[in-house]
Amino acid sequence: MSTEGGHRPETAEIPKAVSGPSSYLDQRIGAGNFIRRNMRKVFPDHWSFLLGEIALYSFIILLLTGTFLTLWFKPSMGHVIYDGPYEPLRGVMMSEAYASSLHISFEVRGGLLIRQIHHWAALLFIAGMMAHMLRVFFTGAYRKPRELNWIIGILLFTLALAEGLTGYSLPDDLLSGAGLRITQGVAISLPLVGTYISFFLFGGEYPGEDVISRFYTLHVLLIPAILVALVTAHMVLMWVQKHSQQPGKGRTNMNVVGGPFFPSFALKAGSYFLFTFGILAALGTFAQINPIWLFGPYTPADISAGSQPDFYMGFLEGSLRIMPAWEINVLGYTLPMSVIIPALLPLGIVMTGLALYPFIEQWVTGDRSEHHVVDRPRNNPHRTSIGMSAITFYGVLWLLGANDELAATFHISLFTITRFGQIAVIVGPILAYIITYRMCLGLQRKDAEVIGHGVESGVIKRLPHGEFIEVHVPPAEDIEAHVRGKTPIPALPGGADGKGIPPKGMRGPLGRLRGRMSRAYGGEKIPLEQPHGDDHGAHAEIGEHEEHAGIGAGGEGRTLDR
Ligand code: HEM
Ligand code: HEM
């Protein structure tokens, strides 16, 4: 392992694989320096950084498989009589879209495999993105200077949901239709603009003849184009700002510690891509997904019982299902709150809350400094508890999206399940907050104990007066550095100056609220203790156990200034 400060000679460690092509390009477009500099860019390493990569690789696979599907898919609601090889549907009237999806599934070589990979990749893309977003949230990696990348992330997340919804609707089978029916119901419930939005999407009265071709344009052109542009911006920003790093030995807000992009990171990224592709190909081969031929074509008169959307739409479905049937009449118009609230509230709370969080936190703490070393979730207990509350709110809605399945599986009445959901969606987040907060403090105390008293060595000593004690040894160096990398949560100065005037920005009711929130946000202070003399004594006696207590963080490679 070589670790050193920023300014190394440019050529010192440029591998041949880079120097050859870079001097070729240098002679032609003068880009040699640029390439050499970037190939040596240092990347920190942590398993959780893989989550964003999973989203990225699934996105690439979506683009590739989606392009394959466009070669055969016909985005038309024109009617045809099915005469393909799938016997049970022969002679059935259906849309060209549905017939072409059946054609892809049964007649195009590799068609079913690619359709299934596309669908599995869509699920992995959104699941990976959610996990990645939670990683960024819980570690506070969205803080300055990464707020912009966080906002781009929220846009990506919202667009990904829209991309999933439009994709899911394309095959025009009975399940697609159930989703479209809900989409139209929600659109039309919106005051003032609802009818226009619905007519615009469906080209007239529901279901109309145009929705599939309109969704197709959105799904294969508009949304992917914006996604590609935003993902590129996301990556460029991450590259320019350099990735954040976990607290650890030698890591500060002024440097970046890790391996060079080439070859170490590039090779890892390449193999992770192949690994993601392998998993998706295996899922596409062995795990059936969306067998549209079993559901039959969509007709508005048919009801598909037990239909479930893809998992990422579950929270919206759940909020519709648990909402009481409230309506308000205003000037002769009916406002169906039972649809408006579920449509706007979870999306509004989840997306707006997420988008604003970095700015609200900055306002509350008054912290305008740059953070490149991320937090361990336990060290910011209020943030972690807010995150867990949001997950619980989302989770209850998501679960209740399957209230009929739950009722049937557990033999409980639908009414009881729904009532449970209505209570749990309020009580659950509060409980999650309290429990998480206590757990964070507990874990902080555990850290303080590790620093103060060391870790258990497994060695039992008998003292002269007969008492047995377990010898503690200091934690391994890298673990200690990880635990000690705890940045205090800044708070605004409280109180008033000599003349009784509170500081600027903290005057008036809003300012006072800000001050109170700022002091509370830091949470209970649990300092990391200084090592105790006794434990060192014990450690000196059993020096051979020191190694056994530590788990090395592995080769770090290089340190560069930010
Ligand atoms: C980037 C995110 C994307 C997501 C989340 C996504 C999601 C989906 C989903 C869930 C389906 C339904 C699959 C099924 O029938 O089982 C679908 C179908 C489809 N997608 Fe995508 N997709 C994405 C990108 C693309 C792209 C970039 C293209 C084309 C360039 C594309 C083309 C298609 C086509 C043609 C279908 C209909 C095929 C069929 O169902 O038989 N998709 N998509
Ligand atoms: C299309 C979806 C997305 C892709 C492909 C993607 C990809 C990535 C990748 C590969 C990284 C670097 C590795 C890592 O930290 O995991 C990253 C970093 C980042 N992403 Fe995303 N991301 C996506 C969505 C999101 C979302 C939804 C958010 C948050 C709302 C977000 C916020 C961030 C931030 C703040 C960073 C910098 C993290 C740091 O330096 O620690 N991203 N993204």
UniProtKB/TrEMBL annotation:
Residues 1-13, 531-549 have a biased composition (Basic and acidic residues). It is a multi-pass membrane protein. Pfam families: Cytochrom_B_N_2. GO terms for molecular function: metal ion binding; oxidoreductase activity; quinol-cytochrome-c reductase activity. One of its GO terms (cellular component) is plasma membrane. Keywords: Cell membrane, Electron transport, Heme, Iron, Membrane, Metal-binding, Respiratory chain, Translocase, Transmembrane, Transmembrane helix, Transport. Residues 1-22, 491-511, 524-562 are annotated as: Disordered. Residues 21-247 form the Cytochrome b/b6 N-terminal region profile domain. SUPFAM superfamilies: Transmembrane di-heme cytochromes. It catalyses: a quinol + 2 Fe(III)-[cytochrome c](out) = a quinone + 2 Fe(II)-[cytochrome c](out) + 2 H(+)(out). InterPro entries: Cyt_b/b6_N, Cytb/b6-like_sf, Di-haem_cyt_TM. GO terms for biological process: respiratory electron transport chain. The chain crosses the membrane at residues 54-73, 119-138, 150-170, 182-203, 215-240, 261-287, 339-360, 381-400, 412-436. Its EC number is 7.1.1.8. It is found in: Cell membrane. Gene3D superfamilies: Cytochrome Bc1 Complex, Chain C. The keyword Cell membrane applies. Its cofactor is heme. It comes from the Bacteria. Residues 551-562 have a biased composition (Gly residues). This is Cytochrome bc1 complex cytochrome b subunit. It comes from Spongiactinospora rosea.
